[in-house]
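Thread title: Can someone regenerate the structure for this chain?

I was given the following input by a collaborator and told the matching structure tokens would be attached. They weren't. Posting the sequence so someone can regenerate them.
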Amino acid sequence: MGDHRDTATATAGGGRRRRRPPPGPGQGDGGDDPGGDFRCHKVQESLLSSASGYSNYRGILNWCVVMLVLSNARLFLENLIKYGILVDPIQVVSLFLKDPYSWPSLCLVIVANVFVVLALALERQLAAGSLSEGAGAALHALNLLAILCFPAAVVLAVTSITPVGAVFALAIYTVLFLKLFSFKDVNKWCREKREVKAAPPEPGDGSDAAAEEANGDVRKSGVAYPANLTYRNLYYFLFAPTLCYELNFPRSPRVRKRFLLRRLFEMLFFTQLLVGLIQQWMVPTIQNSMKPFRDMDYSRIIERLLKLAVPNHLIWLIFFYWFFHSCLNVVAEVMQFGDREFYRDWWNSESVTYFWQNWNIPVHKWCLRHFYKPMLRWGVSKWTAQVAVFLVSAFFHEYLVSVPLKMFRLWAFMGMAAQIPLAWFVSKFLRGNYGNAAVWISLIIGQPIAVLMYVHDYYVLNYEGNQ
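Best answer:
Regenerated them for you:
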């Protein structure tokens, strides 16, 4: 009875029993922790340690962008205070034309159709069997050689052509050379494939598979050889944003108007931006670099080089986006060309070789398909084939610079040839972020060195002697 009454009284009154206070922060029942439940720490790494696994550095990236904008804004303001406004879009026209009634660069581009017609005529004769393979190869070689030599001879002989106009014309001829070289090779592979089909099959013969891979599967749909040898087919290839010929290109189902308008707007905007940055930022810096070169003041030369590196690299990045993303996508969209892989993630390059393989995919595909792999089939080692690819690229770089400037200094050739030992050094001794940093440094510093060397030599050759 007493026990029951005491229990009821305690339950009814509730004020005679002390209540335990709620557990504080970090406290539990204390059963598993002999030191008490007041813990606020655990085993963990600092965020900036690689062992932490943390990877969200968006805020730091934004900070870098803000600092870059602010520092370049100061440089731009200093440039405006020192030189005033130098941007003159009308002046750009004079870079292409000296005489408004004489357009040598445009005339050169129009004459290029002669070589196109000749290449198509040769292929038609080869397809019909009216011309032997040996004679056809020799005539194709002469036609391709003329594509490189004829415009160079005209540029060197005609005084009214400007360097910028000459670069434009020679670039068109270089692209034409690469395209017609691919056109010749693919049609030759098609003839070899046709002969293999006509002959009894031989076990282990892989030529049919190689031709199939090179030209796409033409048996399912589309045009087949030699029905591809038409002006419509060839000129579609010549205007398409690729250097590698196929009988049937992948096509997009429709033209996306909004996408096309965005790319057109980017083309116009970045064209004006490039012109403005070159006139306002690069030209004064280059002009101020001539005196240190004449005086051989090495400290001032290095200072000018570093000052030129920032605008030159910024202009190169804008040009990359303008050409490889905006311009080529406009052409591809209008022509409904399906393959839009014009570049890959070259900015993540951890080796020089990876950069050159991924920043310009049309050229890389051409080199791989029509130069590198044929050399391997001829028994050449991979290293020798890679060196040969770099040297061919060096030749075309020098061709597009020395001929328009009408002087031969080989700075562009040596700059490209220097990529060979640089590629070996980076792949041998640098990895990961260090290799990526080496690639960026070579891009930021290497280009302005070549620019200053050519500008200095051009200034000495054309202006210093006339003063």
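Residues 1-16, 202-220 have pLDDT under 50 and may be disordered.
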